[in-house]
Amino acid sequence: MEQLAYQNPNPVLRAGADGKIIYSNNASEALLKKWDTGMGEKLPPSIENLVKKIVKGTSHEKIEVRAGKKVYLVTFYPVPGEDYANIYGFEITGQKKLEQKLRIKEKQYDALYTLGRIALKCESLQAFLDESVKLIAKTLDLEFCKILELKPDGNFLVIAGTGWKPGYVGFAFVKGGKWSQAGYTIFSKVPVIVKNFAEENRFEAPEILREHNIASGMSVIIGDVEKPFGILGAHSAKKRKFTADETFFLNSVAFIIAEVIERRYAEEELHQYKEKLEEIVKERTIELTRANEQLSMEISRRKKVEKDLENNVYFLKTLLDAIPSPVFYRNLEGIYQGCNDKFSRKILNLPKTEIIGHSMQEFREQFSEETLRETEYNDKILLKEGKSLPNELKIKCAIDGELRDFLVYKATYSNLAGEVIGIVGVMLDITERKKAEKALLKTEEIRKKEIHHRIKNNLQVISSLLSLQAENFSDKKHT
């Protein structure tokens, strides 16, 4: 059994109730060295007291012991009926490293979560950046952290930082170009890690780092690598190796910072746009108010004009209907646009609605082919030469079916631009006059015949008298 314990790769020891080492295998050397003891020698007081407690009790206990670079989980077991305790060690260095790594990751994740809350809480971008560098330095256990903004000239301005001497943050510039860490980071487009600036040959340490005796650090790009906002740098005055997890954390923070900056800039632009828009709306509101007032006045004026026009239209309609003769007006295509009651009732015996929008050719029962041809001919002369030529037409009136004589007077009418847009006509019923003229002509013929007859009779009387006078004169001459 002792041979098996001796070959065990893990520490195996036995200690008596007096705290002395009774047995140890080769693997126990690290623990013995840690406790500064050996075979037959006493354990340190804290371990001795624990052994005494275990020997007297019935349960085991565990402790962690760091020996050099290794960590052991040491378990103390009582041996029933014996005045000693068995001690077994198990190396857990890898496990402890993993636990440490997990704790660091948890710390970093907590920091990222906190950073997100800070982004929501801070009213200004500068306040957020100031809190961010403090949180980064605390999380990575570093003395210095800074945020550099890339300027149009290619240099960088320190806009936020922690650990730096007064007068640097907000005022100090860092040169750009490949010969500075910030410029090299922009150029390489990947995180840049410096283990020891004294041995660095890719670029030179800028003045701000030399002034603060910076020994190591890392830097990452904030924003798009093609259009970066700037650089996030974390530094230490001690030589230090930065892990991949720490680089990932710094990159994650840079991403959050870039998002917050972009959002804040967008909010600022939106705020400015909103103010500008409000100003425009205000100006437009004033303009619209004025325009509305003018429009109201214009509407009132137009309503008055429309009312006057309605009155004028009604007056003209009344006037038109009061004219005892038929009146009509047509457009240039010969389509009736309106007429008075005399025309609609006497000539066509139709409602005005059945006349307007129709041409003369659609009322052939009232207008003969000869009337249509003569009307078309006279309309062309009127439109071409502007001459108003009254012409006589025979029209069959629909109201009584009688064929009556009309003397039609026509003229053109124009729009406001002076353009001729149609023909207006007035029809004078001359049927009775024509009858009177015929009767007068007949009377004149009778009168002429009577006069002719009387003249003829008088001439015969005169001729007879002259003949008689001549005979008398002849008789006197002979006598």
UniProtKB/TrEMBL annotation:
Residues 263-294 form a coiled coil. Residues 389-442 form the PAC domain. GO terms for molecular function: kinase activity. Keywords: Coiled coil, Kinase, Transferase. CDD domains: PAS. Transmembrane segments: none annotated. SUPFAM superfamilies: GAF domain-like, PYP-like sensor domain (PAS domain). NCBIfam families: sensory_box. This is Sensory transduction histidine kinase. The lineage of its organism: Archaea, Methanobacteriati, Methanobacteriota, Stenosarchaea group, Methanomicrobia.
